[in-house]
Amino acid sequence: MSDLPGIVITGATGRMGQMLVKTVVQSGKARLVGAIEREGSEAIGQDIGTLCGLGPLGVLVESDPLPSFARAQAVIDFTAPAATLEFAALAAQARAVHVIGTTGMTEAEIEQLAPAALHAVIIRAGNMSLGVNLLTQLTKKVAAALDEDYDIEVIEAHHNQKVDAPSGTALMLGEAAAEGRGVSLKDVSDSGRDGITGARKRGDIGFSAIRGGDIVGEHDVMFAAMGERIILRHIASDRSVFARGALKAALWGQDKSPGQYDMIDVLGL
Ligand SMILES: NC(=O)C1=CN([C@@H]2O[C@H](COP(=O)(O)OP(=O)(O)OC[C@H]3O[C@@H](n4cnc5c(N)ncnc54)[C@H](OP(=O)(O)O)[C@@H]3O)[C@@H](O)[C@H]2O)C=CC1
Ligand SMILES: O=C(O)C1=N[C@H](C(=O)O)C[C@H](O)C1
């Protein structure tokens, strides 16, 4: 048997799940040892390779996560907040690295990851691409260089099936801008404008969300002042950028001590 790290993909038939299966299988750097979907899913018992158009891989979709987590070195999880919390406890029990791409988690939910991180490595990021993580650093730098004469707006666009807003990436970029400015995002965040909102408050960081068609993920950070605008932009045109980042994180986490990490740690930015 190969000594490549074994990886389980949760939500394996989802948009990201299928991309992750392909990325892991084609990487030559890891083995796919499990594919999880919820109880009652039509995919249970079917070969995940066949479902993803790769041909049979001998890995059947299961609904009980623990047995497959127990034979894995890492779990890559792009599902939904409630599921991710359950997977975190089980991945910790199995001492498997837990790579979390799930977005839309509340602060309270994120705090609930702490007990699992005492026993296992958790790597979580609202965007696993190299480009976006680099953009957070650029955003922080530009925000630190400019004063509040420059209004900061984060504009994001995603496909029509996305369930959370602002996107995880938009929040990462907003956090980076706030950090650059030396303020706390929760004190200056302005999202969901509608109706008679009053004039923009100086120093606020605004968020706008577009949802439509098959847009993979687009993010602008705009610094708008009198007479000029600076726009930092990232466009993801293929989900493979997220999957490659997640696999990199799963491999990076293998020799790390238990705790919580992000993609800035993984990429050494
Ligand atoms: N960090 C990053 O780089 C990226 C993050 N994301 C995030 O990843 C998440 C998933 O996105 P996407 O793939 O587009 O969504 P999908 O809805 O296509 O896929 C999610 C999958 O997870 C499954 N799932 C949900 N709950 C459970 C559960 N309790 N047990 C097992 N499986 C479950 C869903 O099954 P079912 O259909 O039955 O609910 C579905 O198959 C989102 O939060 C998204 O924002 C996306 C891209 C990049
Ligand atoms: O749901 C998506 O599709 C995406 N979600 C992430 C987010 O919330 O930012 C990352 C990417 O933009 C795609």
TrEMBL record:
Class of this enzyme: oxidoreductase
InterPro entries: DapB_C (IPR022663), DapB_N (IPR000846), DapB_N_CS (IPR022664), DHDPR_bac (IPR023940), NAD(P)-bd_dom_sf (IPR036291)
GO molecular function, one term: NAD binding
A Pfam family it matches: DapB_C
Positions contributing to NAD(+) binding: G11, A12, T13, G14, R15, M16, E37, G101, T102, T103, A125, G126, N127, M128
Keywords: Amino-acid biosynthesis, Cytoplasm, Diaminopimelate biosynthesis, Lysine biosynthesis, NAD, NADP, Oxidoreductase
Pathway(s) this gene product operates in, as recorded in its UniProt entry: Amino-acid biosynthesis; L-lysine biosynthesis via DAP pathway; (S)-tetrahydrodipicolinate from L-aspartate: step 4/4
Domain Dihydrodipicolinate reductase N-terminal, chain residue ranges per copy: 7-128
Residues bound to (S)-2,3,4,5-tetrahydrodipicolinate: H159, G168, T169
Binding site for NADP(+): R38
Catalytic activity: (S)-2,3,4,5-tetrahydrodipicolinate + NADP(+) + H2O = (2S,4S)-4-hydroxy-2,3,4,5-tetrahydrodipicolinate + NADPH + H(+); (S)-2,3,4,5-tetrahydrodipicolinate + NAD(+) + H2O = (2S,4S)-4-hydroxy-2,3,4,5-tetrahydrodipicolinate + NADH + H(+)
Protein family (similarity comment): Belongs to the DapB family.
Assembly mode: Homotetramer.
General function of this protein: Catalyzes the conversion of 4-hydroxy-tetrahydrodipicolinate (HTPA) to tetrahydrodipicolinate.
Protein name: 4-hydroxy-tetrahydrodipicolinate reductase
